[in-house]
Design a protein that fits this description.
48% of the residues lie in helices and 14% in strands. The protein is built from eleven helices and ten strands. A four-stranded mixed sheet has the order 1-4-5-8.
């Protein structure tokens, strides 16, 4: 890895130790007590303090292009920063959110650049993506939300569910069907929808495990202008699926960070905890837990870095790589945290440590952005249709 990445890693690790890990006990208490309400686990005032400190520490706009006011360090730097930040369970990542940034950079034109892209890139605005529906989760081609052309406007009707940050976003990226005959093959369009637009409502939310608390979103005859079409009419499917690939890269980085924390804790515990006259470090079972965890973690890290490299070099289709890192990273985290809990015994499932929280977060990650079974199907379908990839062309 380049020397600059090592310096970035060292800087972020110090930020995490200084600013995030001391907040963990309070975060666990808030998560335990918030019940069914949607209070953020990171209160707004604390989030703002962390944003200011992150900016001062040079952790702002990491993968935002220089001509947009960012650092232009690329996808690999963002992965390194994310995995270091997620050595803590505190849900803080400096803006902007890379998957939506990637999509907006690719598709925004004209007035959209000043109204949406630049404020988003600078952290002034927040966004969410409204894709999933009751009958269209992993199968995005099953979307039923419609946008019809009437009287010089686009009229949007339908509903979405499991939409993260819907109430706290300034605008949404909404995917709708514009040609029911073509659907995923030229009949799906993305729209930029301001949250306060008449007809947009976010009436309910879904209490879930860990930090996630997504929302239902409804669109009732929402009028949109042509300049709110994101990209080409009918051609949203491939850009959106690539955007999901970038999100899966982000999830993999998060899993690497959390698994690293678990492994560090397991090693320290094994070297200090004695049972029946011997350190846990002397027990073969514990040694194998540590050895297997390290090997699995490093293999996922290399696979994730390779996908970051593909994103950086401008590859236009990395859906298979996204499915691989999503599946392998989330399942790896589940195994590593389970071993760590077993090593700590009763303390491992107590709220005195972050392990039980990480275990629940890891379980959620195996479902959000597509469950492992769907990703395996995507990978197998591609290989059965096209054969193995040509490695000489990589």
């Amino acid at each position: 890895m380049p020397e600059a990445m090592g310096m970035i890693r060292k800087s972020v690790r110090a930020f995490v130790a200084r600013e995030l890990i001391p907040l963990e006990a309070d975060l666990i208490a808030r998560e335990s007590s918030r019940g069914h309400n949607d209070d953020p686990l990171l209160p707004a005032e604390i989030d703002q303090v962390l944003r200011d400190k992150a900016r001062d520490a040079g952790l702002w706009g990491v993968d935002v292009p220089v001509d947009m006011g960012g650092q232009g360090l690329g996808a690999l730097a963002r992965v390194v920063i994310t995995e270091e930040l997620k050595r803590s369970i505190v849900p803080f990542v400096p803006p902007p959110d890379s998957p939506n940034l990637y999509l907006l950079k690719e598709l925004c034109v004209g007035s959209q650049i000043d109204k949406y892209l630049l404020p988003y890139a600078s952290g002034e605005k927040r966004s969410c993506i409204a894709l999933s529906e009751a009958g269209a989760g992993s199968d995005a081609a099953g979307i039923k939300t419609r946008a019809e052309r009437k009287g010089g406007k686009w009229i949007l009707n339908g509903s979405k569910m499991w939409i993260s940050n819907a109430r706290r976003s300034d605008f949404m990226i909404v995917v709708a069907v514009t040609d029911p005959q073509k659907r995923a093959r030229g009949g799906m369009t993305a729209f930029l929808v301001d949250r306060e637009t008449p007809g947009v409502s976010v009436p309910s939310s879904y209490p879930m495990m860990g930090e996630y608390h997504p929302y239902a979103v409804f669109f009732d005859n929402v009028e949109l202008d042509d300049n709110q079409v994101l990209g080409d009419v009918g051609n949203a499917f491939v850009p959106i699926t690539n955007r999901l690939g970038v999100r899966r890269l982000d999830i993999a980085a998060r899993c690497i960070g959390l698994a690293t924390r678990c492994l560090e804790m397991m090693i320290a515990h094994a070297n200090t905890r004695s049972t029946f006259g011997s350190l846990l470090a002397d027990r073969q079972a514990v040694q194998w837990w540590i050895a297997d965890s390290y090997q699995e973690l490093e293999m996922v890290r290399l696979l994730t870095y390779r996908l970051a490299w593909r994103v950086e070099r401008g590859d236009k289709d990395f859906r298979i790589d996204g499915s691989m890192v999503k599946t392998q990273a989330t399942e790896m985290l589940g195994r590593v945290v389970d071993r760590a809990i077993q090593a700590f015994g009763a303390m491992g499932v107590s709220k005195e440590l972050p392990l039980e929280y990480i275990a629940r977060m890891g379980r959620v990650m195996r479902i959000v952005e597509g469950p492992s079974e769907v990703h395996r199907w995507v990978i197998a379908r591609s290989l059965l249709r096209n054969g193995l990839p040509d490695l000489s062309a990589a």
